[in-house]
Structures are given as structure tokens and as C-alpha cells.
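the two lines:
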Amino acid sequence: MDMELFNKGLIAAGFGLAGVFLVLILFYLVTKLMLFVFRKFPEK
Amino acid sequence: MLQLFQSQGIQELFQGIIGLHWGQIVMFCIAGVLIYLAIAKDYEPMLLLPIGFGAILANIPFSSAIGHDGFLKILYDAGIITELFPVLIFVAVGAMIDFGPLLQNPFMLFFGAAAQFGIFATMLVSLALGFDLKQAASIGIIGAADGPTSIYVASKFARDLLAPISVAAYSYMSLVPIIQPPVIKLLTSKDERLIRMESRPVKIPKIVRILFPIVVTVIAGLIAPISVALVGSLMFGNLIRECGVLERLSKAAQNELANLITLLLGITIGSTMVADKFLNQATLLIMVMGILAFIFDTAGGVLFAKFINVFLKHKINPMVGAAGISAFPMSARVIHRMAQKEDPTNFILMQSVSANVAGQLGSIIAGGLLLAIVPILLR
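prediction for all of em together
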């Protein structure tokens, strides 16, 4: 096993999984914000 | 008579039979199994049947379907190499997805992230088995449980492995009802499987439904621009659905576009299953890695749900975590059925569907991030 390559894989996996969480956390916050705003000021 | 048989004209006439070797016969058998699973077992028939038949067309010796001017080669160059088919499929899928359940319960987005664990864990196992980083990432993405994403990433990173990766992705997606329950049972107690979750239908303002696909595209695009083709096409399809003024286009995307591209995609992928390239150790390993990816995904979702339950007052049924994979709506149905089996009065379908829809978002984000990260690491 190529340890250098495996280390790169570990970095990719770490950043990848953290990135998915980060993006979905952002989606969560934005969705909550949109729901808050548009429930408070409903469309006419 | 012998001279007649040895003459080039006669040999050319029988070149199909003379050119047949054991590898192609094995591929006919594999194609037969795929067609059988599609017709007799109803496992992803829209894809497994065209893939199976495409494999037959590709393995007939001197097949005119895959040669330089063969129609399958033309489709491959036009639809797979250019990534057009997966992207168009995403437009169709986007038009089919109702994000309503997710918008009612946005917390479920986290399960869409946790259940992508299998992608990254499988990538590491593949690296340990000797695949290079791009190949390992393409194999890991089988864990996205999302055919078009697997095809998109594999066509960018490892075209040689496109056929086994696609076959593994679609086969295991159809086997979710068999793969997930034992893993979930192994990781949860009966008490946990009996947890009830409140579900209160909430009205989602129309403006939020319209803004959601736009905002998601912008956020994902700003973080990983390379994911724009994937996320953007999915969300474009969803915007057509939700805007309320393009009903005809929405229906066309859900029906005509989805059917046509699925048909072409399946037979084109099947045409890449040529014996010389398909029958090797790598294919076998990819099939094993594929099932491993689904197991890791399921475990990741369940364990994450158990972890956050430590901090929650109103506990989450950990089985819902397993629905965070992208195999929609099969995974949600499996989880709901399991809950009903434990307690027929326990309904967790809404929550499972929310997690499942979140999984669709999570899987394409994971694919996009891998496409962004791996080339940077290889520089």
C-alpha cells in the first residue's frame, strides 16, 4: 500500500465529509431563515 | 470443399461464430442475469434491462453497434464523455423531487450528510486495495446510492471503470431492501427501533419552495464550483416543478426526458461492458466495494442518529438515519416498513422521506466535493 497516496485519501475523505456537513449545515440555516422570514411576512 | 471453407469470403461470413470466445459467453450470462433481475425480480428494470441488452450488443464479435461508427459508440461519445446524459437525468430527477417533506423538517438535512460516510470510507478501503486516488474516489461514489452521480464522477475520474461502477451502483440501489435491514438491526436495540417521532404537517410558503433550489445552487456552486453541473441541473428541474407556471415543461422533464435519457443511458452503459475490459479482478473488487459502501452508508446514518440522540430531548428513531442515503424512495420505504414491523402503530414515513430527500442533496454535494478535492491533492 502506498502510504503517501493513502494519506492523500485520508485528507480527501476528511475534507469531503466535513465539506458535505458544512454545505448541508448552510442549507439548514438558509432554509430556517427563509421559513422564518416568509412565515413572519407572508406573501400576499 | 476445404478450400471453400478456408477462403476469406466464407470466413468473413462466419466471423461472428469463429470470433466468439469464453469471455463473451460469460458476458452474455451476466447480461442474462441483469435482464432476469429486471424482468422477474423488478430490480431497477428501467436501467438493468437496457444495461443487460447493451452488454449483449457489445459482446457479439465484430458487433456493428460498438465499432468506430457504431450507434452505441456515438451515444457514448455524445452522452457519457460529454457528461450530457447524467446532467439531463438530473434535470428529470429534480422535476420529480418534492422537497416539501425536507422543508417541513430541515433538521433531517444532517442525516443526508451523515449517510455519505460510506463514500469516503469505501474510498479509503479502495486505496488500501491498490486503486489510485481517482479510481478510489470513483468506487467510493457508489456509496452515493445515486446512479447519475456515480456515472458523472466515474466518467471524469476513471472511464475504464465506468461499466462496473454503474452496474454496482444500480444493482445495489435495487438491493437496498436486502442490504439495509440487517445492518440497522445489528446497530440498534429493539427499544431504539420503537422510538416514536412526532410529525406535524406544516404549510411551506410557496416562495420558500421556489427560492430553495436557487439558494441551494448558489451555495453549493460558491463552495465547489465544479458541482454546479450536478446541483444546478437537479435544482433547475426542481425550479421548473415548483415555479407553478411551467407545468408542461415539468411534466415533460418528469416523463419524456426521464424516460428517453434513462433508456439511452442504460444501453450506452451496457455497451461499455466489453468482456476484455469487464472480466477482471478490478470488477470483482468493485462489486465487493459497492456493497461495502452501502453498508458503511447505513451504519454512518444510524450511528450519527444515535450520537445526536445523546443531546436531544425528543429522541430520533435511529433507523431514520439510514434513510439518509440517496436511494429514493426505496430507503424511506424500507425504514418505515421496519418501524411498522416492530410496532404497527409507529409511523415514521414522513421523517424517513425527509432524510431520504436530504440524502439526494448530500450525495451530489459529496460527488461535487470529491471532483473538487481530488485533483487539488494530485497536483
